[in-house]
Amino acid sequence: MQPMTPQTPSCQPAGHCLGPVRRRGFLQAGILGAGGFSLADCLRIKAAAGPLGNDDTAVIFIWLPGGPPHLDMYDMKPEAPLEYRGAFTPVATRVPGLDVCELLPRHAECADKYSVIRSISHQFADHGGGHKRFMTARDPLEPTGFVNDFPAAPSFVAKSREGFRQGVPNYVSFTDGGRDGVDVFSFGAAYLGAAYVPFAIPGDPSQANFQVPNITLDQTLADRLDDRLALLNRFDQLRREVDRRGTMEALDEFQKRAARLLTSDSTRTAFDLSVETEATKQRYGRHAWGYRALLSRRLVEAGCSFVTVVMENPYQSGVEWLKQGTYNWDSHAVNCHIFDDARVRFPLYDQAVTALIEDLYSRGLDRRVLLVVTGEFGRTPRIENVKGSQTGVVQPGRDHWPNSMSLIVSGGGLQMGQVIGSTTARGEVPKERPLSPNDLWATVFRHLGIDPDRSYPDHRGRPMPILPSGRPISELI
User: Fold this and answer.
1) Which of 99, 308, 358, 430 is at 20 to 30 A from 41, Cα to Cα?
2) Distance CA 343, CA 353 (A)
């Protein structure tokens, strides 16, 4: 099989890293990705519980699957030997002591509005194990595969916030087309149940044919109302049909609530990018990543509690495929020439992420909204040189490395413009302030006003806390 490309996304040849593999055949009509539930079914399941936490806060979670290279982005080691430090030069930011890669110039300009954490680590080097360890804050029972043994942390947010009625879906994810299944990135809700996975929105929002998939109605109404409620260009038609035929009266209360939610003015407005200025769109970048980031801001403004933005494949929205590039951040030498790929990938990432950071601050959302940008682990400090499967020539890359990683956080009313923790001279392991993904999630739950000690029963009826360990990162508070 060939490596992932925009044309032939699949896994690597046998013996090479599979990466976060593409899954085909996920349901496109519902928010679950499995089982055939509709939004109405989810609302029935959720009806028993009341709200927890503070409904005036939200999180945008940018997920970089495959593992971004910390030594080439936020933890550069210019004094390390060449086989460690890589091809790029660090540049100073407006925050003394904080340098970033030369390919991230916009990060340098707004460094006072985010903080870098350099000392998070865990022990799971497989993509599946790494995704599960990071997303669930627990050691997975099976260190491979992407099906969660425990709920992903955002599912606890969805559970805790289910009583809030904001007029928009409360937990949303943006992914590439065909990558919206809950088991692609370990977004599953495990014992919480299928009602607590994200409302998945696959595709490229920068394209004219982009549509938001929707809910499934009862089959008895499917022939009359269509089996989907379209958002955007079909909203008005749907409303007219519902009113004209009186079919809303045939729906039970939960289906009515689902239909009203997905056809509400708040939802319609949140997904309508036509109201944004051309300058704003240009600042984010007319690309899938930029438009997803912009939509995430619009959703949290409208009341959504948690938005996951997956920035995986840069080679879309008119960006020409690079033969020595790769689909996601899994920058093995067999997959890509890591530095050539970065020359395409990093500028798109730099533009979209910093546009979101600056937008949150300029619109006064920097206290209410917490932004987290991370992958499942870092990359090996030492560069490997292997023949590329696409190029047929020896090229540089980096392997999986959960022993150290870098991520950034912004907003949330937290202390920005700082570096938290450090790694050893070659970036191999944390040196100062070692942290785990649990500490990050404890910080997220603190921002949302969710008690991480609250327990929910697992499949055996045993009470399981939201977080088994971890403390909010004190430097941020």
Assistant:
1) 308
2) 16
Task: Report d(CA 142, CA 341) in Å as an integer.
Answer: 31
Residue spans of the domains in the chain: they are: 39-212+271-476
Tokens of 113: 């509005």
> 21-72, pLDDT tens digit by residue?
433 332 333 333 333 344 545 445 444 433 334 668 999 999 999 999 999 9
pLDDT-derived band at 163 (thresholds 50, 70, 90) equals: confident
Confidence of residue 94 (pLDDT cuts 50, 70, 90): very high
- Torsion angles phi and psi, residue 140, rounded to 5: -70, 150
What whole-number distance in Å separates Cα of residue 121 and Cα of residue 118? 9
pLDDT for 20 beyond 90: no
Stronger pLDDT, 454 or 265, i.e. the higher one: 454
Three-state secondary structure string covering 347-366: HHHHHHHHHHHHHHHHCCCC
CA dihedral 328, 440, 204, 322 (to 10 degrees): -20
pLDDT at 259: 59
* pLDDT tens-digit series, residues 283-331: 999 999 999 999 999 999 999 999 999 999 999 999 999 999 999 999 9
Q: What is the pLDDT of residue 59?
A: 98
Count the Cβ atoms, other than its own, within 10 Å of residue 309.
Answer: 28
How many whole angstroms separate alpha carbon 476 and alpha carbon 427?
A: 22
What is the per-residue pLDDT for 212? 82
Residue 301: CB partners within 8 Å, gap ≥ 6?
270, 363, 365
Q: Report the distance separating Cα 35 and Cα 61, nearest Å.
A: 26
Q: What is the pLDDT of residues 189-212, one digit of tens each?
A: 999 998 899 999 999 999 998 988
Which residue reads 């055996």 in tokens?
Answer: 460
